[in-house]
Amino acid sequence: MYQFLLWRGTIHSPRLIIFPPTPLPSMLRSTAFMLVLLIGRATVADQAPAVSFEKDIRPILKAACFHCHGEEGVKEGGLDVRLSRFLLEGGDSGPAFVKGKGEESYLYQRVRDGEMPPEESHQLSSEEIETIRKWIDAGAPTLREEPETLEGPLITPEELAHWSYQPIQTPEIPKVQGTELVTNPIDAFILQQLEAEGFSFTTPAERKTLIRRLKFNLTGLPPTPEEIEKFVKNDSPDAYSQLVDQWLASPHYGERWGRHWLDVAGYSDSEGYNTADKVRPDAWRYRDYVIRSFNEDKPFDRFILEQLAGDELIKSKINNLTPEDAELLAATGFLRMAPDGTGGAVDDKNLARNEVIAETLKIVTSSLMGMTVGCAQCHDHRYDPIPQADYYQLRAVFDPALDWKKWRTPAQRRVSLYTDEDRKLAAEIEKEAKKILAERTKKQDEFIQATFEKQLAKLPEELHELGRAAHATPAKKRTPEQKDLIKKHPTLNVTAGSLYLYDRKAADELKALANKANEIRKKKPKQNYVRATMELNGVVPDSYLFARGDHEQPKQKVLPSGLTVVSLTSDVPEIPENDPKFSTTGRRTALAKRLTHPNHPLTARVIVNRIWMHHFGQGLVATPTDFGQLGSKPTHPELLDWLALEFINSGWSVKHLHRLILNSTTWQQAAHRSQELAASDPENLLYGAANLRRIDAETVRDSILFVAGVLNEDVYGEPVPVMADKVGRWVLGIENLNAGRPGKVIPLRGKEHRRSVYVQSRRSRPLSVMEAFDLPQMSPNCEVRRASTATPQSLMLLNSEFALKYSKVLAERIQKEHPDNLESQIQQAWNLSYGRNAESSEVVEAQAFVGEQVKLLEGRITLKKGDVAKAIQQEALANLCQMLFSSNEFLYIN
C-alpha cells in the first residue's frame, strides 16, 4: 500500500499530511513508488535566499548526478545527492560540503577539478560550478524543511510551477493605443508587446504579395495571374476573407496542412530500421485519412481520438467493415509509423520490437504533449518532472496493442477490407472462371492425348503398349524401362508445356481460354488492406518498469497512466486498467479523452502553437515538441492560452484558427521592418512584420509543375513509386531491374505530375529534387523543418533533369499562349513565376539574355524535321525560365 505525502508549510511551521491510497487517482495508486511532493514557501518573500538548493542546486545535480547518487537506490561512494541534508550527511568520504566554506567543500572540489561527474557528457559548466560554490558559501540554504526519507522520485514546487503544467488561463484582452490596428484579439496581444517596446505594426502587405502568401500558406501552390488580377481589382471589403474561405474549402488545403501533420506523425511508405527499408504497401491509407480529416475540418479532439484508438470505436465486424469503420482503422496507422524492421531478419527480435514501441511513444508524446517523455525510458528525466515510472505507465496504455511478447509483424497487422458482398461477388466470378478453366483442362487433355497418339504412331507397334504406360505414369513414378523409352524417344513426352511444339493451333486455343479466365477474374473486387493497430481480444499483458530501459530486466509491475505532473496540476480524467464499456481495455480511448480534456494543460497549447508556427515560420514556443525545462518559453504566453481556449471552445476547429490568424493585422503585415525594430528584435519575436520564408521541398516541386501547367491535381490513392536512375539518383518511376538499372522505362501515364504529398515517401529513397531543399528524414518523425540555403540547391536547379525538363515545358507553354511575341512571353513567365509583371528594365534584360542564348545555340541544334529557328528560340526561352525557377523571388515568400 502506497501513500501520497503532501508537504506544506514553511521552514518554521511544516505540516505533514498523509492521505490514504483509496481516494487517490488510479495513476498515483498504480505508481510503484512513494511520490513525495513538496509544496509551499520557505518563508516570506523578502527572506528567500539569493541561491537555494531547490531552485539552483538540485536541477544541476539532477541532470548530472542523480543516476549514480540516489536514483533507484544507487549510491556510489555511499553518497545520496537528492537532498541537501543527504549531502551534509555525506558518504564514504565524509560530508559533501562544509556550510559557509565552498572552497574547502569536497563537492565543490570534485566538480571544479572535473573529477565528477566522470562522464564527459555530464561535465558541469563553469557557471554551474560557481553556483555550487556560492550556495555553500551562503550556508547551503534551502527553501523548506526536507523530508526524513525519500522512497522514490521527488517533484518539487519549482518543477511543478513550470509554465506548461499550469492550467490554461482565460487572459484579459489587452488594451492598446493603436486600437484602429486591432482586427481581432490576436492583434491586441501582439501589439501590446510591440507598444511596450516603443514600436507598432509595419505597413500592410501589398495585395499581390498578400494573395501570393495566402495561397502558398493554405494550399502550397502559387496563385494564377487570373486569381491575382481578380483580387487586386476587387474593392469589396470582404474580398480577402472570401479568398481565405475559398482556399480553406479547396482539396489542396488538406494536401498542404495534412503534410504538416504527417511530418510530426512520422509518415513513411517504408519500414526503415535497416538497409532493407521494406515498402509499406498500405501506409498511404493513413496519409489519405489525414488529408481528408483536414479538408473536412474534423474536430481535432476527434482526430486525436481516432488516431490513438480508432479500432476501439468501430461498430462493424472486423471481417465485414463498413467504409466508416475502415477509415477508423486507417486512422490508427498513426501508431504504425515508427521505423519497424520486425518483418525481416534482425539480430535481436525482442530488442527490435521494443525499439518500435519506444519510437512510437516518442511520436505520440512529441506530437500531442510537446514533451520529451522518451528521455525517461532508462532513468528519471534529467530536467523535467517525469519519473521513469511515468514512462512505463504511459507505455502500459499501448502494451495491449503493442505487446512485444505476442508481437505482430507488419504483414500480420494488415486487415482486409473485403466485405461479405465482395466475397460473394468474388466467389461468383471465380466460379465462372473455373468453368472456363475446366473446359480448358478437358481440351488440354484431349489435345495432349491426340498429339501423343500421333507421335506414338511413328514408332514400331511393339513399343506402343510400353509407350502408353509410360505416358500415363507420372514422371517420378516411371520404371527404369519407361524412363529409358522416353529418353530414347523424347517426342513421346507430350505435356502441357511442350504441346505448342507439336500443335500450335491447339496451344493457341488453350491460351485463349486461359486469357478468358484471367479476364473474368479481373472483374473481382480488388482486395485492399489497411495497416491497423488493434488489441488482441482477451490478451492483456502485464506491464513492467524496465531497469535502465532493458526489457530483459523487468522490475515492478505498473498500471496504465498519464503524466503524474499533469495529474497534480490539473483535474483531468485518469486511465483505467480495463474499461468495461469496451471489448478491449479501452486504455487508448481513455488516454485520448484525457489529452483532449479542456483542463489538460499541454495538448491544446501544443497544437495551436504548431498551427501558429506554420503560419508565421516560428512558434510562440520556438521548440514545438519540447515544452519542458530545456524548451523555449512562450514569447506571448497570454496569446498562447487565448488561442488554446479559442481552439477548444470552437469545437477544436483548425479552420476556425486559420480564419482568426489569417484575418489578423499581424499576419497581413509586409515583410519589411524599420532599422530600429530590426536592431531591437532581430529574430522578429515581437511579430512587428512578416517573415521572409523559403518554400519547402514539396512546394518547390509542386510550384514548378503548377507554373509549367502540367500539375496533376488528382487527389488520394496509391503513391507514385520512386526508383534509381542510371546514375543512382532517386527519381519517379516503376522499379524494373530486368535489363539493368533503371531497365526498360515503364510509363507513369501522368502520375509523375502528381503533387509531392502523393510521392512515395521511403526513408532510404528521398526524391532527389526535394532532398536538396531539406526534405525531412523520419527518424522517427520530423519535429520541425529547418530551411537552409546551400550549394546543392542551386546545383539541383542548374543541372537536374527535372529542372531542365520543366523549364522547357514552361517555355513551350508561354510560346503557345503568346506566339511570336517575346515581350509577351517574358511578361507571362514573370506573372506565372512571380505573380507580377516584369519591370521594363527586367524585360530589356530578359530580351537581351534570350538573344544571347539564341546566338550561342545556333549551329548546335539540328532537326531532321521541324523549324530549327523555333527550336532554338524555345531552348533559349527555356534557359530564361530555368533562371526564374532558380531565383530567390520564386523560392521565397515575403
From TrEMBL:
One of its GO terms (molecular function) is heme binding. Residues 587-849 form the DUF1553 domain. Signal peptide: none annotated. Residues 65-120 form the Cytochrome C Planctomycete-type domain. InterPro entries: Cyt_c-like_dom_sf, Cyt_c_Planctomycete-type, DUF1549, DUF1553. It comes from the Bacteria. Residues 185-400 form the DUF1549 domain. PANTHER family: CYCLOINULO-OLIGOSACCHARIDE FRUCTANOTRANSFERASE-RELATED, F-BOX DOMAIN-CONTAINING PROTEIN. This is Planctomycete cytochrome C.
